[in-house]
């Protein structure tokens, strides 16, 4: 059951991320209303500088099919307008290219003379937009606000008198009182007989012995 719950959680997370990417993705129509063309002196470098491309976005090239095309090329071929070794070729007239990774990408029109006339596009794809950057962490709470009060402290009463007075000292002192009578030490047999008591017992024993002697 735990494994099934984990799989379900992972699936829900993946769906949520996919929805987030889809909802935030942007479709950029190259050249805006002018489209992909050599007419009107469209400055594609200027157009690109006003955009903010990122992974998940779509670049759309619109043009009359058969009149133009879109070749994705490397940096060197972009600058030299070389169309002989394209990375990819698009000819539909409504080419939608989804950006799947960050980096620098280059596109030209492969029709002879068109790239030299300015029909070329260079885009730099960022990992995230500046608006997607995480917010700075909130300021740390002050030590006095964050630190809990000591468990042994006494709360201040409403009257503002401060902490309650310390409890009275215990009535039983650890030092024995001077008037306390010390218990007699036990004798060899363990009986607690005082010295006076022993003297009385001895006197009684002597008297009893004398009486017995007189009887005999």
TrEMBL record:
InterPro entries: Cupredoxin, Phytocyanin-like, Phytocyanin_dom. The keyword Signal applies. It comes from the Eukaryota. Residues 131-192 have a biased composition (Low complexity). This is Cupredoxin superfamily protein. Residues 1-24 form the signal peptide. GO terms for cellular component: plasma membrane. Residues 128-192 are annotated as: Disordered. CDD domains: Phytocyanin. Keywords: Signal. Pfam families: Cu_bind_like.
């Amino acid at each position: 059951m735990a494994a099934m719950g984990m799989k379900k959680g992972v699936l829900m997370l993946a769906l949520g991320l996919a929805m987030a990417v889809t909802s935030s993705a942007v479709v950029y129509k190259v050249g805006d209303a002018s489209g992909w063309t050599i007419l009107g002196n469209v400055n594609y470098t200027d157009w690109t500088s006003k955009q903010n491309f990122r992974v998940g976005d779509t670049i759309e090239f619109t043009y009359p099919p058969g009149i133009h095309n879109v070749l994705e090329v490397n940096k060197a071929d972009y600058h030299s307008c070389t169309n002989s070794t394209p990375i990819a070729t698009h000819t539909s007239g409504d080419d939608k290219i989804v950006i799947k990774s960050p980096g620098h990408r280059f596109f030209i029109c492969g029709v002879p003379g068109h790239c030299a006339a300015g029909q070329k596009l260079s885009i730099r794809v960022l990992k995230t937009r500046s608006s997607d950057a995480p917010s700075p962490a909130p300021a740390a709470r002050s030590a006095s606000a964050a630190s809990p009060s000591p468990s042994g402290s006494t709360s201040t009463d409403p009257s503002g008198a401060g902490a309650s007075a310390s409890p009275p000292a215990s009535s039983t002192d650890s030092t024995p009182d001077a008037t306390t009578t010390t218990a007699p030490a036990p004798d060899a047999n363990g009986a607690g007989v005082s010295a006076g008591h022993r003297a009385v017992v001895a006197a009684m024993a002597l008297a009893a012995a004398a009486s017995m002697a007189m009887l005999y």
